[in-house]
Amino acid sequence: MRNVALFVFVLSIFQRVFAQHSLPSPTVENVIIVTTDGLRWQEVFEGADSQCIQQIKSGEIRTRVKERYLPGGYWTNRKALMPFLWGAFAQKGRLYGNRNHHNKINVTNKIHISYPGYNEIFCGFADDKRIMTNGKKYNPNLNVLEWMNAQPGFENQVSAVGSWALFSWIFNQKSTKIAVNAAFEPFCGTHLSDEQKTLNAALHTCAHPWKDHLRPDTLTWAFAQNILEEQAPKVLFIGYGETDEYGHEGNYAAYLDAAHRFDSLVQALWNYVENSPKYRGKTAIIITTDHGRGTHNWKAHNMLTPGSDEIWMAAFVPGMEAPGEVKSSMQLHQAQFAQTIAHAVGLHFNNPEHAVAPAVYDVWVNPPTAIPAPSADLILSSGGVEK
Ligand SMILES: [Zn+2]
Ligand SMILES: [Zn+2]
Fold first, then answer.
1. What is the mean pLDDT of residues 154-183?
2. Cα–Cα dist 105/82, whole Å
3. Could you point out which of 159, 186, 285, 306 has its C-alpha 20 to 30 Å from the C-alpha of 29?
Protein backbone atom coordinates (compact mmCIF):
# COMPACT_ATOMS: atom_id res chain seq x y z
CA MET A 1 0.00 0.00 0.00
CA ARG A 2 2.83 2.31 0.80
CA ASN A 3 4.25 1.89 -2.69
CA VAL A 4 0.86 2.64 -4.23
CA ALA A 5 0.51 5.76 -2.09
CA LEU A 6 4.02 6.83 -3.07
CA PHE A 7 3.26 6.26 -6.76
CA VAL A 8 0.07 8.37 -6.52
CA PHE A 9 1.99 11.09 -4.69
CA VAL A 10 4.77 11.16 -7.32
CA LEU A 11 2.17 11.06 -10.10
CA SER A 12 0.39 14.04 -8.61
CA ILE A 13 3.67 15.97 -8.63
CA PHE A 14 4.28 15.10 -12.30
CA GLN A 15 0.72 16.07 -13.16
CA ARG A 16 1.24 19.38 -11.41
CA VAL A 17 4.52 20.11 -13.17
CA PHE A 18 3.08 19.01 -16.51
CA ALA A 19 0.00 21.17 -15.98
CA GLN A 20 2.16 24.24 -15.41
CA HIS A 21 3.77 23.80 -18.79
CA SER A 22 0.68 22.94 -20.81
CA LEU A 23 -1.81 25.51 -19.72
CA PRO A 24 -4.71 26.26 -21.99
CA SER A 25 -4.54 29.79 -23.29
CA PRO A 26 -6.74 32.09 -21.30
CA THR A 27 -9.80 33.06 -23.29
CA VAL A 28 -11.12 36.04 -21.39
CA GLU A 29 -10.93 39.56 -22.74
CA ASN A 30 -11.11 41.49 -19.47
CA VAL A 31 -9.70 41.27 -15.97
CA ILE A 32 -10.89 43.09 -12.86
CA ILE A 33 -8.75 43.17 -9.71
CA VAL A 34 -10.38 44.08 -6.39
CA THR A 35 -8.64 44.61 -3.05
CA THR A 36 -9.80 45.52 0.43
CA ASP A 37 -7.00 46.81 2.60
CA GLY A 38 -5.78 44.66 5.45
CA LEU A 39 -8.70 42.23 5.77
CA ARG A 40 -7.39 39.12 7.51
CA TRP A 41 -7.79 35.62 6.10
CA GLN A 42 -9.09 34.67 9.53
CA GLU A 43 -12.26 36.71 9.06
CA VAL A 44 -12.66 35.62 5.44
CA PHE A 45 -12.45 31.88 6.20
CA GLU A 46 -13.48 31.67 9.84
CA GLY A 47 -15.91 34.56 10.12
CA ALA A 48 -16.00 37.02 12.99
CA ASP A 49 -13.66 36.25 15.90
CA SER A 50 -15.72 35.67 19.06
CA GLN A 51 -12.80 36.65 21.31
CA CYS A 52 -12.37 39.99 19.54
CA ILE A 53 -16.13 40.58 19.80
CA GLN A 54 -15.96 39.80 23.53
CA GLN A 55 -13.53 42.69 23.94
CA ILE A 56 -15.97 45.24 22.50
CA LYS A 57 -16.69 47.53 25.44
CA SER A 58 -20.25 48.58 24.62
CA GLY A 59 -22.68 45.84 25.59
CA GLU A 60 -25.22 47.13 23.09
CA ILE A 61 -22.78 46.97 20.18
CA ARG A 62 -21.44 43.61 21.36
CA THR A 63 -24.95 42.16 21.28
CA ARG A 64 -25.68 43.58 17.84
CA VAL A 65 -22.44 42.24 16.39
CA LYS A 66 -22.97 38.79 17.91
CA GLU A 67 -26.49 38.57 16.55
CA ARG A 68 -25.40 39.71 13.12
CA TYR A 69 -22.12 37.88 12.63
CA LEU A 70 -22.14 34.89 15.01
CA PRO A 71 -25.40 33.12 14.21
CA GLY A 72 -24.01 29.61 14.58
CA GLY A 73 -20.97 27.46 13.80
CA TYR A 74 -17.87 27.93 11.70
CA TRP A 75 -19.58 27.69 8.33
CA THR A 76 -22.62 29.81 9.07
CA ASN A 77 -20.58 32.53 10.78
CA ARG A 78 -18.34 33.19 7.78
CA LYS A 79 -21.37 33.25 5.51
CA ALA A 80 -23.03 35.75 7.84
CA LEU A 81 -20.00 38.04 7.51
CA MET A 82 -19.47 37.61 3.76
CA PRO A 83 -22.69 36.22 2.32
CA PHE A 84 -21.86 36.85 -1.32
CA LEU A 85 -18.33 35.46 -1.22
CA TRP A 86 -19.54 32.27 0.50
CA GLY A 87 -22.73 32.18 -1.57
CA ALA A 88 -22.88 32.87 -5.29
CA PHE A 89 -19.14 33.55 -5.70
CA ALA A 90 -18.03 30.29 -4.04
CA GLN A 91 -20.36 28.40 -6.39
CA LYS A 92 -18.40 29.59 -9.43
CA GLY A 93 -15.00 30.86 -8.24
CA ARG A 94 -12.27 29.58 -5.93
CA LEU A 95 -11.03 30.86 -2.59
CA TYR A 96 -7.38 30.38 -1.65
CA GLY A 97 -5.58 31.03 1.63
CA ASN A 98 -7.29 29.03 4.38
CA ARG A 99 -4.31 28.09 6.52
CA ASN A 100 -6.43 25.58 8.43
CA HIS A 101 -5.97 23.44 5.29
CA HIS A 102 -2.31 24.44 4.81
CA ASN A 103 -3.47 26.44 1.82
CA LYS A 104 -1.27 29.49 2.24
CA ILE A 105 -0.59 32.81 0.58
CA ASN A 106 2.14 35.05 1.98
CA VAL A 107 3.54 38.42 1.04
CA THR A 108 7.26 38.23 0.26
CA ASN A 109 8.11 41.79 1.27
CA LYS A 110 9.42 42.09 4.80
CA ILE A 111 7.63 45.34 5.64
CA HIS A 112 4.01 44.09 5.85
CA ILE A 113 2.35 47.45 5.29
CA SER A 114 0.27 48.82 2.44
CA TYR A 115 2.51 50.46 -0.17
CA PRO A 116 5.00 47.55 -0.18
CA GLY A 117 2.00 45.19 -0.53
CA TYR A 118 0.44 46.99 -3.49
CA ASN A 119 3.89 47.31 -5.10
CA GLU A 120 4.27 43.53 -4.77
CA ILE A 121 0.78 42.82 -6.16
CA PHE A 122 1.21 45.01 -9.22
CA CYS A 123 4.97 44.89 -9.90
CA GLY A 124 5.49 41.19 -9.26
CA PHE A 125 8.32 41.45 -6.73
CA ALA A 126 9.07 42.93 -3.32
CA ASP A 127 11.26 46.01 -3.22
CA ASP A 128 12.25 46.30 0.44
CA LYS A 129 15.11 48.68 -0.28
CA ARG A 130 13.05 51.36 -2.02
CA ILE A 131 9.43 50.77 -0.89
CA MET A 132 9.64 50.72 2.89
CA THR A 133 6.95 53.18 3.98
CA ASN A 134 3.55 54.55 2.98
CA GLY A 135 5.16 57.89 2.11
CA LYS A 136 4.00 59.89 -0.91
CA LYS A 137 6.81 58.78 -3.17
CA TYR A 138 6.33 57.83 -6.81
CA ASN A 139 6.89 54.15 -7.43
CA PRO A 140 10.16 53.58 -9.30
CA ASN A 141 9.02 50.12 -10.47
CA LEU A 142 7.08 49.21 -13.61
CA ASN A 143 3.62 47.96 -12.64
CA VAL A 144 1.61 45.45 -14.65
CA LEU A 145 -1.25 47.89 -15.31
CA GLU A 146 1.08 50.43 -16.90
CA TRP A 147 2.78 47.66 -18.88
CA MET A 148 -0.57 46.25 -20.10
CA ASN A 149 -1.69 49.71 -21.20
CA ALA A 150 1.29 49.76 -23.56
CA GLN A 151 0.45 46.42 -25.20
CA PRO A 152 -1.35 46.29 -28.59
CA GLY A 153 -5.10 46.24 -28.09
CA PHE A 154 -4.86 47.48 -24.49
CA GLU A 155 -3.98 51.14 -25.11
CA ASN A 156 -6.28 53.36 -23.02
CA GLN A 157 -8.03 50.21 -21.84
CA VAL A 158 -6.61 50.19 -18.29
CA SER A 159 -8.05 52.06 -15.29
CA ALA A 160 -7.45 52.15 -11.55
CA VAL A 161 -9.84 53.56 -8.96
CA GLY A 162 -9.29 53.45 -5.23
CA SER A 163 -10.35 54.80 -1.87
CA TRP A 164 -6.77 55.52 -0.73
CA ALA A 165 -4.91 58.65 -1.88
CA LEU A 166 -1.60 56.76 -2.14
CA PHE A 167 -2.75 54.89 -5.26
CA SER A 168 -1.76 57.98 -7.25
CA TRP A 169 1.83 57.44 -6.13
CA ILE A 170 1.76 53.64 -6.22
CA PHE A 171 0.64 53.72 -9.87
CA ASN A 172 2.98 56.57 -10.67
CA GLN A 173 0.27 58.96 -11.81
CA LYS A 174 2.86 61.62 -12.62
CA SER A 175 4.16 59.74 -15.62
CA THR A 176 1.82 56.84 -16.32
CA LYS A 177 -0.73 56.82 -19.13
CA ILE A 178 -3.26 54.75 -17.22
CA ALA A 179 -6.29 56.52 -15.74
CA VAL A 180 -5.97 56.65 -11.93
CA ASN A 181 -8.78 57.99 -9.75
CA ALA A 182 -7.82 57.94 -6.07
CA ALA A 183 -9.49 59.22 -2.90
CA PHE A 184 -10.90 62.71 -3.47
CA GLU A 185 -9.61 63.29 -6.98
CA PRO A 186 -12.49 64.25 -9.31
CA PHE A 187 -13.10 63.01 -12.82
CA CYS A 188 -11.19 65.39 -15.08
CA GLY A 189 -11.87 66.57 -18.60
CA THR A 190 -13.92 69.08 -20.53
CA HIS A 191 -16.70 66.72 -21.58
CA LEU A 192 -17.89 65.22 -18.32
CA SER A 193 -21.24 63.44 -18.25
CA ASP A 194 -23.97 64.57 -15.86
CA GLU A 195 -23.30 61.54 -13.68
CA GLN A 196 -19.58 62.29 -13.54
CA LYS A 197 -20.38 65.85 -12.47
CA THR A 198 -22.70 64.48 -9.76
CA LEU A 199 -19.97 62.12 -8.54
CA ASN A 200 -17.44 64.96 -8.46
CA ALA A 201 -19.88 67.01 -6.36
CA ALA A 202 -20.33 64.06 -3.98
CA LEU A 203 -16.62 64.22 -3.18
CA HIS A 204 -17.31 67.49 -1.39
CA THR A 205 -20.53 66.52 0.34
CA CYS A 206 -19.69 62.98 1.48
CA ALA A 207 -18.38 62.16 4.94
CA HIS A 208 -14.62 62.61 5.45
CA PRO A 209 -13.95 60.43 8.50
CA TRP A 210 -10.32 59.96 7.43
CA LYS A 211 -9.79 63.49 6.15
CA ASP A 212 -8.44 63.52 2.61
CA HIS A 213 -6.51 60.30 2.53
CA LEU A 214 -9.39 57.84 2.24
CA ARG A 215 -12.71 58.11 0.41
CA PRO A 216 -15.69 56.06 1.66
CA ASP A 217 -15.69 52.69 -0.16
CA THR A 218 -19.27 53.01 -1.40
CA LEU A 219 -18.31 56.22 -3.23
CA THR A 220 -15.29 54.46 -4.74
CA TRP A 221 -17.67 51.81 -6.12
CA ALA A 222 -19.87 54.56 -7.60
CA PHE A 223 -16.79 55.93 -9.40
CA ALA A 224 -15.81 52.40 -10.50
CA GLN A 225 -19.28 51.71 -11.85
CA ASN A 226 -19.18 54.91 -13.86
CA ILE A 227 -15.78 53.91 -15.28
CA LEU A 228 -17.23 50.53 -16.30
CA GLU A 229 -20.22 52.18 -17.95
CA GLU A 230 -18.56 55.11 -19.67
CA GLN A 231 -15.03 53.85 -20.36
CA ALA A 232 -15.54 50.05 -20.38
CA PRO A 233 -11.86 49.24 -19.79
CA LYS A 234 -10.46 45.77 -20.43
CA VAL A 235 -8.45 46.00 -17.22
CA LEU A 236 -9.77 47.62 -14.05
CA PHE A 237 -8.41 47.79 -10.51
CA ILE A 238 -10.74 48.73 -7.65
CA GLY A 239 -9.06 49.31 -4.28
CA TYR A 240 -11.16 49.58 -1.12
CA GLY A 241 -9.76 50.71 2.21
CA GLU A 242 -12.19 50.97 5.13
CA THR A 243 -11.30 47.58 6.63
CA ASP A 244 -7.76 48.74 7.39
CA GLU A 245 -8.83 52.10 8.86
CA TYR A 246 -11.23 50.53 11.33
CA GLY A 247 -8.63 47.88 12.15
CA HIS A 248 -6.10 50.54 13.18
CA GLU A 249 -8.79 52.33 15.17
CA GLY A 250 -9.31 49.11 17.14
CA ASN A 251 -13.01 49.23 16.28
CA TYR A 252 -13.76 45.56 15.67
CA ALA A 253 -17.48 46.11 15.12
CA ALA A 254 -16.81 48.71 12.40
CA TYR A 255 -14.06 46.48 10.92
CA LEU A 256 -16.59 43.65 10.57
CA ASP A 257 -19.19 46.02 9.13
CA ALA A 258 -16.61 47.24 6.59
CA ALA A 259 -15.83 43.63 5.59
CA HIS A 260 -19.57 42.96 5.24
CA ARG A 261 -19.94 46.12 3.13
CA PHE A 262 -16.97 45.08 1.00
CA ASP A 263 -18.73 41.78 0.34
CA SER A 264 -21.80 43.68 -0.90
CA LEU A 265 -19.59 45.81 -3.19
CA VAL A 266 -18.10 42.66 -4.69
CA GLN A 267 -21.64 41.43 -5.25
CA ALA A 268 -22.54 44.72 -6.96
CA LEU A 269 -19.53 44.31 -9.26
CA TRP A 270 -20.48 40.70 -9.98
CA ASN A 271 -24.04 41.74 -10.84
CA TYR A 272 -22.70 44.47 -13.09
CA VAL A 273 -20.47 42.01 -14.94
CA GLU A 274 -23.28 39.45 -15.29
CA ASN A 275 -25.60 42.06 -16.79
CA SER A 276 -23.10 43.54 -19.22
CA PRO A 277 -22.70 42.08 -22.73
CA LYS A 278 -19.11 43.37 -22.80
CA TYR A 279 -18.10 41.67 -19.55
CA ARG A 280 -20.39 38.65 -19.03
CA GLY A 281 -18.54 35.38 -19.66
CA LYS A 282 -15.42 37.25 -20.80
CA THR A 283 -14.06 38.59 -17.53
CA ALA A 284 -11.74 37.19 -14.87
CA ILE A 285 -12.08 38.60 -11.35
CA ILE A 286 -9.24 38.46 -8.82
CA ILE A 287 -9.87 39.59 -5.23
CA THR A 288 -7.17 39.91 -2.57
CA THR A 289 -5.60 42.14 0.07
CA ASP A 290 -2.31 43.99 0.53
CA HIS A 291 -1.32 42.38 3.87
CA GLY A 292 -2.78 40.52 6.80
CA ARG A 293 -3.01 41.68 10.40
CA GLY A 294 -1.67 40.22 13.61
CA THR A 295 -2.85 36.76 14.57
CA HIS A 296 -3.25 37.92 18.17
CA ASN A 297 -2.94 41.69 17.77
CA TRP A 298 -5.55 42.13 15.03
CA LYS A 299 -5.35 45.93 15.21
CA ALA A 300 -1.82 46.11 13.81
CA HIS A 301 0.21 44.89 10.87
CA ASN A 302 3.94 45.39 10.46
CA MET A 303 7.20 43.47 10.35
CA LEU A 304 7.08 42.90 14.12
CA THR A 305 3.51 41.59 14.28
CA PRO A 306 3.26 37.85 13.47
CA GLY A 307 0.54 37.07 10.93
CA SER A 308 0.84 40.36 9.02
CA ASP A 309 2.30 38.55 6.01
CA GLU A 310 -0.62 36.11 5.65
CA ILE A 311 -3.14 36.93 2.93
CA TRP A 312 -5.90 35.30 0.83
CA MET A 313 -7.32 35.39 -2.67
CA ALA A 314 -10.66 34.78 -4.38
CA ALA A 315 -10.45 34.13 -8.11
CA PHE A 316 -13.02 33.62 -10.83
CA VAL A 317 -12.33 32.67 -14.42
CA PRO A 318 -15.28 31.76 -16.70
CA GLY A 319 -15.49 27.99 -17.02
CA MET A 320 -13.68 27.32 -13.76
CA GLU A 321 -14.30 23.82 -12.42
CA ALA A 322 -14.13 22.65 -8.80
CA PRO A 323 -15.29 25.97 -7.37
CA GLY A 324 -15.34 26.87 -3.70
CA GLU A 325 -12.68 26.78 -1.02
CA VAL A 326 -9.40 25.20 -2.16
CA LYS A 327 -8.53 22.78 0.62
CA SER A 328 -5.27 21.30 -0.62
CA SER A 329 -1.79 22.08 0.65
CA MET A 330 -0.34 24.96 -1.34
CA GLN A 331 2.02 27.88 -0.92
CA LEU A 332 1.36 30.94 -3.05
CA HIS A 333 2.91 34.40 -2.86
CA GLN A 334 1.65 37.92 -3.33
CA ALA A 335 4.32 38.60 -5.96
CA GLN A 336 2.51 36.13 -8.26
CA PHE A 337 -0.52 38.40 -8.69
CA ALA A 338 1.07 40.70 -11.31
CA GLN A 339 1.74 37.87 -13.77
CA THR A 340 -1.64 36.31 -12.88
CA ILE A 341 -3.37 39.55 -13.92
CA ALA A 342 -1.48 39.64 -17.23
CA HIS A 343 -2.00 35.91 -17.91
CA ALA A 344 -5.78 36.30 -17.44
CA VAL A 345 -5.98 38.14 -20.76
CA GLY A 346 -3.30 36.14 -22.54
CA LEU A 347 -0.31 38.43 -21.89
CA HIS A 348 3.07 37.69 -20.35
CA PHE A 349 4.29 40.56 -18.16
CA ASN A 350 7.90 41.30 -18.92
CA ASN A 351 9.88 43.85 -16.93
CA PRO A 352 13.34 44.26 -18.53
CA GLU A 353 14.73 45.64 -15.27
CA HIS A 354 13.55 43.00 -12.81
CA ALA A 355 12.36 39.39 -12.71
CA VAL A 356 8.62 38.96 -12.13
CA ALA A 357 7.18 36.05 -10.13
CA PRO A 358 5.22 33.39 -12.12
CA ALA A 359 1.42 33.45 -12.33
CA VAL A 360 -0.78 31.40 -10.02
CA TYR A 361 -1.27 28.62 -12.55
CA ASP A 362 -3.75 26.72 -10.41
CA VAL A 363 -6.36 29.33 -11.27
CA TRP A 364 -6.43 27.98 -14.84
CA VAL A 365 -6.14 24.28 -14.09
CA ASN A 366 -9.34 22.26 -13.80
CA PRO A 367 -9.57 20.96 -11.20
CA PRO A 368 -6.81 22.54 -9.02
CA THR A 369 -3.74 20.31 -9.15
CA ALA A 370 -2.13 21.10 -5.84
CA ILE A 371 -0.48 18.25 -4.01
CA PRO A 372 -3.13 16.92 -1.61
CA ALA A 373 -2.48 17.61 2.05
CA PRO A 374 -2.40 14.70 4.48
CA SER A 375 -5.76 14.43 6.14
CA ALA A 376 -4.17 15.01 9.54
CA ASP A 377 -3.34 18.52 8.39
CA LEU A 378 -6.95 19.57 8.66
CA ILE A 379 -7.00 21.59 11.83
CA LEU A 380 -10.01 23.83 12.08
CA SER A 381 -9.43 26.39 14.74
CA SER A 382 -13.14 26.71 15.47
CA GLY A 383 -14.19 23.12 14.79
CA GLY A 384 -17.44 22.23 13.08
CA VAL A 385 -18.72 20.38 10.06
CA GLU A 386 -19.26 21.95 6.65
CA LYS A 387 -22.85 22.51 5.66
ZN1 LIG B 1 -2.88 48.19 3.87
ZN1 LIG C 1 -2.85 49.61 7.80
1. 96
2. 20
3. 186
